[in-house]
């Protein structure tokens, strides 16, 4: 799940609009000529069905062909490929711009789908966090659907759906994590007196809702999409979430918060604490790995696609962990 955090950050880094490739003179000349020759004549050749379904225009197709022609020329001259509109040149498949990223996004979608049914089956109905986990799981599925769409065709609209879904998922994760750690759920642990708990719950829910609405409004309104702010927003939310789970992993003697309802501050089964620590570390490592951007191998697999590939097993392990955490005997004592 934390795996998702890095997604918007990195997708954004690679979406800074103009790149060396599309600014280059030969690319602009090639596109201009192709556009005049193929698109602006009286009977333009219709594009294949797969391209029309995925909304390729004649001009998009010119850009695609020019990009590959120039890349072949550069490679022949022993030069490194360039990026176009923030993306490496990929070979499209059935109209999909980045087929591997699409495939791996669908792989993540499947993992979350499986995770949803496991939570549904393994966490008892009366568990106070079950509904939160299910909502987060649905939010994650929605995010991976939009990630697949965005990697199929990168447009300002699919980009927004991808980023907003991801922001929603990250915020949902932080929301339920705080509710879990500060025992704000109902029925509640005795950690806080009821009125304080209810007030804290309402305040926290309001903060999250207002934050999300403000985030969407700020990014949707003119003058422009603020990529920098978006990266920082996702980083702050994602890192806060990771920090909370790191507190969970602290050894007994250093424990800062009561991790399980109606238990001592020192109580946390070691294997759970270790698992959380490993997963937080893996997620961070995966994110760092994503930052090493390299031209796609055989014009098929790049760092971003590989990163989507590794988030899937991490998410799978994360569901396993959430279920273990929810199965601790301490949860059975609250009603
Ligand atoms: C690629 O190289 C060929 C052969 O040198 C040349 O004719 C063609 O114009 C080049 N393509 C582009 C887009 O510059």
- Please trace the helix and strand order, writing H or E for each element: HHHHHHHHHHHH
Counted by DSSP, the helix tally is: 12
Strand content: under 5%
- Which ligands accompany this protein? 2-acetamido-2-deoxy-beta-D-glucopyranose
Query: What's the N-to-C terminus distance?
Result: 28 Å
Helix content: 55-70%
What are the segments in which pLDDT stays under 50 over at least 5 consecutive residues? 1-16
Strand elements, count: 0
Q: Please state the CA-atom Rg, rounded to the nearest Å.
A: 23 Å
State the major sheet. none
Q: Kindly name the structural category.
A: mainly alpha
Shape: elongated
Provide mean pLDDT, rounded.
87
Subcellular location: Endomembrane system; Endoplasmic reticulum membrane
Transmembrane segments: 132-151, 163-182, 203-221, 227-251, 272-292, 304-324
Keywords: Endoplasmic reticulum, GPI-anchor biosynthesis, Membrane, Signal, Transmembrane, Transmembrane helix
Pfam families: Per1
